[in-house]
Amino acid sequence: MLRFDPRNLEEALLLKPDGLFEMQTVHGNVQIVVHRFGEPDEIIPCLSPGHANQVRQRLTDQGMVGLVGYAR
């Protein structure tokens, strides 16, 4: 049984207090924007798809949730 409304993104993100990250494509290059609550945003430019995957995995292991910007 879900304890939140899965259609409410903000409510779902509150379950991840460590923050979230968003993968974006800018001029054909992938960058990851990290949003940690109470801290300034961090932008990580990725050198390759493999590098983006490594960064994504590290952030996920830290307890963050990821969003894919172009999938909205």
SSE string = HEEEHE
**Which parts are unreliable, with pLDDT below 50 for 5 consecutive residues or more?**
none
The residue fraction in helices comes out at 25-40%
Question: How does the helix and strand content classify structurally?
Answer: alpha+beta
How many domains comprise the coordinates? Answer: 1
Report the average pLDDT across residues: 82
Radius of gyration: 13 Å
Sheet with the most strands, sense and barrel status: 4 strands, mixed
Cα(first) to Cα(last) distance is 26 Å
Strand content: 25-35%
Give, in spatial order, the strands making up the sheet with the most strands.
Answer: 3-2-1-4
Report on the structure:
- The chain has 72 residues and is α+β, with helices and mostly antiparallel strands.
- It has one domain.
- It has helices at residues 9-13, 49-61; strands spanning 20-26, 29-35, 42-45, 65-68.
- A four-stranded mixed sheet has the order 3-2-1-4, with helices on one face.
- Strand 2 and strand 3 form a beta hairpin.
- The chain is globular and about 35 Å long.
- The chain starts with 8 loop residues before the first helix and ends with a strand.
- 8% of the residues are buried.
- The mean pLDDT is 82.
